[in-house]
Structure formats: C-alpha cells, structure tokens
Amino acid sequence: MMTCLLCEKNILPEVTWRTMLYPEAKVICDACNQLLVAIDGPRCTRCSRSSTEGKCLDCIHWEKAPSKDSLASNYSVYPYSNFMQEIITKWKYQGDYELGNVFKKTFRIHFKRMIKTTSKAYVAVPIPLSEERQEERGFNQAAMLAEFLPIPKANYLERIGSEKQAKKSKEERLNSVNPFRLKKPLNKPVILVDDIYTTGVTLRHAAKVLLEQGCPNVLSFTLIRS
Q1: Which residues belong to any copy of the Phosphoribosyltransferase domain (predicted)?
Q2: Does this model's pTM top 0.85?
Q3: In this structure, are residues 78 and 223 in contact, taking their beta carbons and an 8 Å threshold?
C-alpha cells in the first residue's frame, strides 16, 4: 500500500473501470490533494497574480521600465499559502527530493494549458543554483520541475555567486546585479522553469542573458506565484 508523500498516511486505492484499465500510482492522499488548490479565477496576463484588471501594477511598472522587459510572460500553477510553504520547506530546504513528485501531474496539465496558444518549439531551461546551494540541497528543484515537461531541456544557464534571493527585500532584488551567464548560445525560444515567482527579477535576469545571446523569445513557467 502506498503512503502519502505529505502526511504519510496510507492511500486507499480507488477501484474503478478507469483505474483498472489505466493504473496510476497515487503519491498523495485525497485530503492533502484538496489543500493543493491551483490558481483559479482572473489572473494577470503577464505574471499570473490574481487580478481582475488584465495586468497587475507590477507588470505595468515593468513595461514602463527604461529598458525593454526581457520576460514575455509568466504562468504559475499555485498561489503561495501556508500549506505550500510547509511543502516547499520540506522539499527544497530539507532535501526531500521525492516530495517534488506531488506536483508532477498538475504541473504537466497546466503546462499544456499555457502552450496551447503557441506553435513555437520551445526549450525548457531551469533556473540554476550556485555550486554551493546545489551541494547544500543535493538537487535543483527547478531542474526537477523541468524534467516533468514534454519538451527538450537545456541546462545552459550558470549562476555566478551564491547570494540567497529569498532573504533580500523587494528593493534589493530590483537593484541586484545579474547573477547569470550563458554557457553557450541558444537561438531557440525558451521557457524558463523555476519553483517560485516573487518579484520576477531572477527570471528577468536570466531572460536578459538569453536574449543578449540570440534567443528570440523567453517565457517562464513556475510552480508558485507568491
């Protein structure tokens, strides 16, 4: 019998004609699954923040910035919540790699929704960790998420330095130096993959490097919109 990756309770198998014909191992119980609610209702068309205005104030600000916005748009699957914070802490900071599989099915479903309006052949590029963070955590959560997607992957980005963005204020993030460089040019449209969209600065830094090296267009697909 499987146990839930979140609460560790036994998962009772559901027996129906569908499960008999298309067996699928459940990694999360129904109770925990009900707490994982995806973003619903009106959202900002540029960053996925809940908004009834089409575009939120942050995205309007990015569009008015002196330099052209490097990120075409972002699509996020889940809103940030206390329950999500608990999962991210256990998965990302306590090294529970298998916990990431909780998101696999829903992440794929929403990815199909995001790209259904485009015919471009995108490549998934995960946001990299510094060598220090990679060694500390044992894995890169963005790379794990990218592996869930049914498109080619390219680990061409490299992070310089090891400053933690999570501990910076919004102003500090906005004024931070670009921490990325590209290992080699990538002249294909890119979908950047990361776990959390907060201010969008990290993703825009990465997008800027890609555009400067010949990439024609950059979107981002993230697990959470905080």
Answers
A1: 167-224
A2: yes
A3: yes
